From TrEMBL:
GO molecular function, a single term: oxidoreductase activity, acting on CH-OH group of donors
Domain of life: Eukaryota
Cofactors: FAD
Keyword annotations: FAD, Flavoprotein
Cleaved signal peptide residues: none
Ranges where the Glucose-methanol-choline oxidoreductase N-terminal domain occurs: 255-269
Stated name of the protein: Glucose-methanol-choline oxidoreductase N-terminal domain-containing protein
InterPro entries: FAD/NAD-bd_sf, GMC_OxRdtase, GMC_OxRdtase_N, GMC_OxRtase_C
Species: Cardiocondyla obscurior
Binding site for FAD: 86
Family under the similarity heading: Belongs to the GMC oxidoreductase family.
Length: 569
């Protein structure tokens, strides 16, 4: 018998498990469908090494009518199937989102989720080793999650910042502070050249606790509900169907795919759909699986006038092994990002994020360290991304087999405004390439003309609008499928304390609760959601704040408006 059972130890679930195990009297069970973090995952340059492997759920969307058309209307959704979830696979950027993102959540009927409310929960996790650069107004030290820049970046990173400045964009030390618009070399969830996942940050320090049990390769299949109360979880492990009973709460923390899937398998969701797949209806909750949305991007690639060497050579390998420095201690050009407003948003709330790629110290496809990829020049990329998607999709069960993948309909780019903003992002990227700062690279666009778009003049707005529908880049920022909202919102799944409507002792804590996805990467907001969930659970069960490794619990942080900083109170 356990006190609290959590499903999946991803970005948020690892945080919740860690924080609840602070209470010695509570027994916490964390069920993870995959294995532990794999060897090599903590090397930043190996960021893409595990995509498409058995620790990637390898989800695909289906029936896309306006996106991913070059791949048959199916977009790829890699998701981490391991302890730490996708925080073991992502690019490690520490981006919280814009203050207005959270103020909008609160305005939708979710008290406690404004920027003022959530900032303490970001800060109490944080151990920012560059506090001298970013300041203490919005950042903190002493938390479990180390935040810093990588110890290496390619020289071209500074040229891209110079190109952005040439185009009139601010260059910022911190896009998580007062200035959310501009370009930066981003801070990351890393420590001295090593990835910091939610599992390594929040679970490794507490795995010795006797009241915390982490059960790996355990796939949750159903939440046990008796008299509209969650009392346990059914799961597969080692080929056996097992049951874990929970005396206090069950928390679904599987992310925007697995959490709604588990609720549906448990009979919580739209009654018509549940009956269609022969699942007994426990609670008719129409919003489960709805409101599913994601950022979308388009990648432009250029050849530049440098030899196309892999940055992983014997020298960089030795440097990393000995000192955790050099190209392997970073993601290359991918650590650069920019936040830009389109003409369709307010100037202070950017809706376009630019990602960059290249100079990554990864293994050559030939297996030869330091090999030339080919005799052509080196390639770099820019991926403009629209971050305020209007298009919404849904998730459904394929059948009542708990081990079957769900049906995911992203419904990308169904709203024409999403396409319009993405095209503006492409034009911004092209303008960055056409600057004096980048002229020395003699950049040549690699994107071949698309036959499917040949009816439009090449490089025209109409051409790019066609191109983004063909070669859509789905980001890994899925959200919204267990929407948080007030009780009068028919699509709301959880209330502002993350409690599932109509079912006692059941919560959802992950990016699926976001009413609207944040304006940038979602790992940091997901961990914040985990912090908030843990604080709500403790408060609702009358547990006093517990010391967390020398820091007060998040619930003890208050804002001192007179002094414009955050302090303990």
């Amino acid at each position: 018998m356990t006190s609290v059972a959590l499903e999946l130890g991803g970005s948020a679930g690892a945080v919740v498990a860690s924080r609840l195990s602070d209470i010695p009297e509570w027994k916490v069970l964390l069920l993870e469908a995959g294995p532990d973090e794999p060897p090599g995952a903590d090397v930043p340059s190996m960021v893409a090494m595990f995509l498409g492997t058995d620790i990637d759920w390898q989800y695909q969307t289906t029936n896309e009518m306006n996106a991913c058309l070059s791949t048959g209307g199916s977009c790829s959704w890699p998701r981490g199937k391991n302890l730490g979830g996708t925080s073991v696979h992502n690019g490690m950027m520490y981006n919280r989102g814009h203050a207005k993102d959270f103020d909008n959540w609160a305005a939708m009927g979710n008290p406690g989720w404004s920027w003022r409310d959530v900032l303490p929960y970001f800060m109490c996790s944080e151990n920012n080793t560059e506090i001298h650069r970013v300041g203490r107004k919005y950042h903190s030290t002493g938390g479990l999650l180390t935040v810093e820049r990588f110890p290496w970046k390619p020289a071209i990173a500074d040229d891209i910042l110079a190109a952005a400045a040439e185009r009139g964009y601010p260059i910022s030390e911190d896009l998580n502070g007062d200035q959310f618009i501009g370009f930066t070399v981003a801070q990351t969830t890393s420590k001295s050249g090593v990835r910091v996942s939610s599992a390594s940050a929040f679970l490794r320090p507490v795995r010795h606790r006797r009241n915390l049990h982490i059960s790996l390769n355990a796939t949750a299949t159903k939440i046990i509900i008796e008299n509209n109360k969650a009392t346990g979880v059914q799961f597969y492990q080692d080929g056996e169907l097992r049951v874990a009973r929970a005396t206090k709460e069950v928390i679904a923390s599987g992310g925007a795919v697995n959490s709604p899937q588990l609720l549906l398998l448990s009979g919580i969701g739209p009654k018509e759909h549940l009956r269609a797949v022969n699942v007994t209806v426990v609670k008719d909750l129409p919003g489960v699986g709805e409101n599913l949305h994601n950022h979308a991007s388009y990648t432009l690639s250029w050849t530049i006038n440098e030899p196309n060497l892999f940055d992983l050579d014997w020298g960089s390998a030795a440097e990393y092994i000995a000192f955790q420095k050099g190209p392997m201690a970073s993601t290359g050009l991918s650590q650069v990002t920019g936040m830009v407003p389109s003409i369709y948003t307010t100037p202070d709330h950017p809706d376009i994020q630019l990602f960059f790629g290249g100079y990554q110290a990864a293994c050559a496809t030939t297996g030869e360290v330091g090999a030339l990829m080919n005799n052509d020049g080196r390639s770099i990329s820019m991926s403009p991304t629209m971050t305020h998607p209007r298009s919404k999709g849904r998730l459904l069960l394929a059948n009542n087999n708990p081990l079957a993948k769900p049906i995911i309909w992203g419904n990308y780019l169904s709203d024409p405004m999403d396409v319009t903003i993405l095209v503006e992002g492409i034009e911004i990227a092209l303008s960055l390439a056409n600057t004096s700062a980048m002229a020395k690279y003699n950049m040549t666009l690699n994107n071949a003309p698309l036959a499917a778009c040949s009816q439009y003049p090449l490089m025209s707005k109409n051409y790019w609008a066609c191109a983004v529908r063909q070669d859509t880049g789905p980001e890994n920022h899925q959200a919204g499928s267990c929407k948080m909202g007030p009780i009068n919102d028919p699509m709301a799944v959880v209330d502002n304390r993350l409690r599932v409507y109509g079912i006692r002792n059941l919560r959802v804590a992950d990016a699926s609760i976001m009413p609207q996805v944040t304006s940038s990467n979602t790992a940091a907001p997901s961990m914040m959601i985990g912090e908030k969930a843990a604080a709500y659970i403790k408060s609702d069960w009358g547990v006093a704040g517990t010391q967390w490794y020398g820091k007060e619990p998040c619930s003890m942080w208050k804002h001192n408006h007179n002094h414009h900083h955050w302090r303990y109170q």
